[in-house]
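hey team, just a heads up i'm posting the complex here instead of the shared drive bc the drive is being weird again. everything in one block, sequence lines first with there labels, then the predicted structure for the whole assembly after. its two chains so it's a bit long, scroll down
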Amino acid sequence: MATAPNPEAGQARSWRQNRKLDQWIAFWSVPFFFTLFGLVFVPLSWMMPPRSPSSTTPLIVDFMRSHNLLVACVILTLAFGLAPVSYSCYLIQIRRMSVSPAFRYSMMIGAITGAIVGMLFPMFCFGLGAFRPGYSPAVLTMLYDFGYLAFIGSLGCFCVMWMAFGLAILLDQNNILPKWLGYYTVWQYVTELMAAPVWIAKSGPFAWNGLLTFWFAMTLYVSWQFIVYLCIYRAIKNQPEAELDNARPELQPAALDNGSRMGA
Amino acid sequence: MTDVTEDFTTGVGNSRPDADTRGHVPGDSSMWFFVVGDLIIFGVYFVVYMYFRGQNHELFLHSQARLSLDVGAVNTVMLLSSSLFVALGTVAARAGNSAEALRRFWTALAFGAAFPLLKMFEWIPEISAGLTPGTNLFFMFYYVMTGMHLCHVALGLVIMCFVIRNLKTSQPPKISFVETGATYWHMVDVLWLVLFALLYLMR
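-- predicted structure starts here --
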């Protein structure tokens, strides 16, 4: 691996001159984004774990009128811009793979449609109840259903995106990411399809707060996501500097040529 | 369940005279990662199904009686025959007999392709009789689990086409790729055997 920058050069250069700075910012926005997500979803608003689809109307009205829920929705809507930033660390690595750009475009569009339906829609629904007190319980119940169905039922939107990611890893001949991650991604996205029954079941293991559609799918997703980030971290670290998009010709040492490209 | 798959594929390997493949994992080791992961996922589904079946025993038994056991049994035979030909095809490919391997994989593909067709003959009458995933919990499990399995069958058929292309075009064929495809197909087969037992047969 002639690819990792040598430590002396790293120390001599300030972090602002690190040529992978863009990728590292995109990368570290992810833990920030997910921590924020976790804090806002669980202790601030108790939006997650999902409430039951068969809750009684007074419980739904109580939840929908909570001010913390409005605050949570505002924070998440403001932080929404971080989603594209965090996705760019995948896209940069996919660009290095020997696959058609169609994979990158599908992933980009899949990520954006998924984030709009799965994140912005629920935020608008959940924020309305506290914004203007006085909506009728029937309206609030509809918004509650809309919000949770968009949040959990949209897992299918991410399916195409992760399918493109998994196939790109498997077809890539530059070995940017390990092949087993490709297979792992394939079964991860197939299990996301299990969210489909939330449109039918209102209680039991297939409801939107059910054992299989939420808890099991979420456990699989979180552990997979964590491992993907570890692999992306290694891929960024091992990427030869000469191969970077922002590499300036005069700064390239002659040694960093095709040889180290192959070694990456 | 993993053991069953493993026995199935390595058992074929051991039946041939020279033993240089003995002790090696057939196919791409990444595929084994996939197989084990997939078996764990289906395993969780089976356990959850058994739990809810225990809770609603009467309902499950009653609903189960409405499934078409005949189509299920024929489909089991189709998949088992297909798996047998995949195993025989792998033996032929290992022995360097590409032509014979190709014939066997085509037969396996034909048996495998019959599975989704028969599934339609099972699902369409059921759905038109009003037995949909919304009917009750049993039918939800039935459609989700057999549906997920059908996705695996579809993927397996695509992989099998790539194996056939590999046998046709590359000389000598890439044995490791043939084995990878065979491993996946045997997993699909094992999953169906458990599904068939759980959904159709268990009383």
